[in-house]
Amino acid sequence: MPKRKGRPAVHAATVLALLAGSAYFTYELRQDEQAKVPAAQTVTDNAALQNGGGRTTGKQAWERLNNPARSVLRDAGGAVVATFTDGARTATLKGPSRTFAEPAATTSRVVTDDWVRLMPEPWTKGAEKQQWFKDWFKKYNGSQEDDIFAFAFQYVQGAPVKKDSSGVPYAGDAVFGPFKEDGVDRLEQNDFYDYLGIPYTFRSGTTLYPRKERYRALDCSGFMRMVWGYRARYPLMASNTAGDGLPRTADGIARSKAGVDIIRIQGPAPWYRRPGNIDVLQPGDLLFFKMDHRTGNHIDHVALYLGPDTEGHRVFVSSRKEQNGPTMGDKGGVSRIDGNGFYAQLFRSAKRL
User: Fold this and answer.
1) For FRET with 339, which of 153, 161, 273, 276 sits at 20 to 30 Å CA-CA?
2) Contact criterion met (CB below 8 Å) for 79 and 178
3) Closest CA relative to residue 179, chosen from 193, 191, 190, 169
4) What H or E segment, with its residue span, contains residue 237?
5) What is the pTM of this model?
6) Where are the chain's structural domains?
7) What is the residue-level pLDDT of the chain in tens, covering all 353 positions?
């Protein structure tokens, strides 16, 4: 596992140059974009938080909210600067604004001050008083070390190759998978160890081996397992049944006990029902879709929710056959879950890890 490092500030002109000359995400404090998003809030430690107080009496205050049950940290003006959901390890922290774009595939851009990180333990009511959280929060509050969003965009078209100390490429442009014999459809079941090209031993003791023809390939769930598991260190299962952690397939993840079900699968199989309300979603949630009649009752696609783009549409990034790899692009359907587009009509459930 490569050691993650903080990212230094990049001048706005450099960002514009990257947008013009590359297809991978741009990242920085964009002064020309700040009017499009709420001002970034900085959370600072204070005596009440350091001493284990629950609701603070200073500039910050803790509050409990429902649907789902969660704790939020507010600044002096009442704005939420951090969200922690009961039963989930995912935390959403406010920080410097970033722009995620993929100009080779779409004009959609996400300008966000949300940083999605994985805590070492699931959140419980009152966890702000516990030492593990104080230590974690002190380290990551205001940090610009790569988060879940940064990991995800290190696999889109044009993303540069990054290698670990052993010379194994752990990031860089990923494909969905090789073509089948028909030369039209692409092979699925391409996991993170296929992309890496190295054997991987899971906590259950099972060792799985990469297939040469699938090198640097990630299907939709393989992409999520790379981002959340191999990079962020969420436990991984060797299959949908062996061990605990994140299962192998989209259907396995959707139906697993991992994390918290934010929107549950509803309606009759095999197509289920589109959710009526998606306002409960927050950046970093996993989104699940029913797209293919050939998969029977199975949920067959998973994506990472990014939040609203600059046009106000709720968008995601996922690995797809049509674009041949991780993308927020438009081929095969615009990456939106609002409105009545292709993916919006096939969206079925959501989970917060």
Assistant:
1) 153
2) no
3) 190
4) none
5) 0.83
6) 14-152
7) 444 444 443 343 333 333 333 333 433 333 333 333 332 222 222 323 333 333 444 589 999 999 999 999 999 999 999 999 999 999 999 999 999 999 888 999 999 999 999 999 999 999 999 999 999 999 999 999 999 999 999 999 999 999 999 999 999 999 988 767 676 667 778 999 999 999 999 999 999 999 998 999 999 999 999 999 999 999 999 999 988 899 999 999 999 999 999 999 999 999 999 999 999 999 999 999 999 998 999 999 999 999 999 999 999 999 998 888 999 998 778 899 999 999 999 999 999 99
- Rounded CA-CA distance 95/112 in Å is 9
Q: Read off the tokens for 95.
A: 């920080």
Residue found under tokens 């959609």: 108
Q: In what order do the strands lie in the sheet with 109-118?
A: 61-65, 70-74, 80-85, 90-101, 109-118
* 267, 273 Cβ separation under 8 angstroms: yes
Helix (H, G, I), strand (E, B) or coil at 15: helix
CA 267/CA 281 separation, integer angstroms = 20
Q: Which segments within the chain are labelled E, that is strand?
A: 61-65, 70-74, 80-85, 90-101, 109-118, 162-163, 169-171, 200-201, 207-208, 260-263, 286-289, 301-308, 314-320, 325-327, 347-352
Closest to 219 measured CA to CA, from 300, 106, 328: 300
Contact 155, 171 (CB under 8 A): yes
283: its two tokens? 């950046």
